[in-house]
């Protein structure tokens, strides 16, 4: 039996691990990742904005609970992000800096999320998980709360990406299987939306292509996971799983996913409908298992830190803290506050515990 | 309008041509025009340009490279119309067709250049995604590709919505509707203030484009003249965060504000800009007379004098130049803001009132984006709409 606290910790540890694992693969193509790492399975450096903004969102949510409003969030941004900026923002995406500029102009939500042209970004999806933990089992409430946050920095499909992730985490927190979790994401967004179309298309790709990890190397309960299997396969025989996994990712599965949801004539990778679709595809292809979901997401490239963070949050909520590979969890300590000085020193485990304490 | 029906028909043609030539002149005036037109040079010349750019960065050289011709014709790099004029012409030539079908014919091609919104829409159409999803599931749904095309719809008195939804959504569509409304009003002979009001009516204040339009108009009115408004517009409207300066929420408001300021400040400055009063019987006082400053409406039978008559507003070359030049000073949006400003002021002034050298220079399209339009006569294309 996995406790709510275990799931909450699994969710945020999975998110932080995905953020850190995916960070060096951000903006790379699957082929480039395969050429550089074979399969990227080891955390090389710390997490990024995904983890820090998630901690910030959780902190503001805990202050206001179900009464959270966009005005509360805007005030927190003003007092704790904008007021502390004495130079350029670091590690932020377009939507964060665009929001700061809007707030500096004295605008109020929802105009703060509309004024800049980056309301479609995955910046809300990346910080949506705490709403799902807080509203565990209540996807509608999780989506409502994340939208209150999102109106400060996002609009349109950017808000829908956040709704999909928050609602899905709320259902994953009940231990529901990946299909049900993905169904909750779809129910949280209008059927006639880019996010819904991309989610459906990505899940179709998962259903009709061979999944890269099916029948292979699923981790056992003692924590020996994909990495060990991969290591054995690679170093034992000199060929095998590592290569075939990489090939599978950038042959049928990865290529089909990219062809389906990646916009060919656009250079940036942080579109919410794309990132959310890739994250749910990885999570579903990984059968909801933490290591597989995160590794698949990170190796798909594009906004790899965010897609792996979202996949990790979904899988971690479903499988709990113990399912996060120990070698990854060991690398997740207090955040540096590199992107958001206000959260420096906070640990996602403590944040998870605080959210659960209020339930 | 004070003139009779026959005059009206002629005025209308003049204003439609003015909108097209004005857009093309603004298109040509912005710095990106030379980069678009350099598409007509060999690929290696553009590669050398990119390498020189890297060289300047690496060696900290402030002598920045410009598009250049080496062992190739230099004509593409002369001042002239580029992407926006060509897409406007394409729109006018296909305006009676089903829009998804017209775009669908482009979807299989790879020999043209277009904005991100247009390419993304064409990829969507090719994948079987029809409008409005083709414009909505689009990373640049907010850009002004449809607003530029909407100049043709406004000039023809047609609704731009169906066309806009192929490539854009939300602010991108609102920008198109606002632009078409303004151009339609001006084509009907309305004063600029009415055209601006018509455009504002299409832009809800709680949208980025509606908010920016009101901020831009206030900033430009406070500044007093288009050139004086440049720093205020930069501060009030431009988003220096994002990498592409073609958001409709920036370029359409700037065009409305600068067109408004150009007309308003011209009216306040006697001697610089005059308002024409029609006075039959002085046909010899015409546009072709050497040494006569081209202001006001220029056609036989009309004398231009510095008298304001209620209900009559004539925008001349000075106002046109002031508005377009100021838009071209806003470097991040100099690709399309001058073009949209030029369309509004050109429509208000009429083709005959535009500076002769610009009229000649922008008539012939280069084919730098749509190769089939190389050599096409923009004036002739505009005339078919009127």
Automatic annotation (TrEMBL), chain A:
Its cofactor is Mg(2+). It comes from the Bacteria. Binds 2 magnesium ions per subunit. This is ADP-ribosylglycohydrolase family protein. It comes from Microbispora bryophytorum. GO terms for molecular function: metal ion binding. The keyword Magnesium applies. Mg(2+) 2 binds at residue 305.
UniProtKB/TrEMBL annotation, chain B:
SUPFAM superfamilies: ADP-ribosylglycohydrolase (SSF101478). This is ADP-ribosylglycohydrolase family protein.
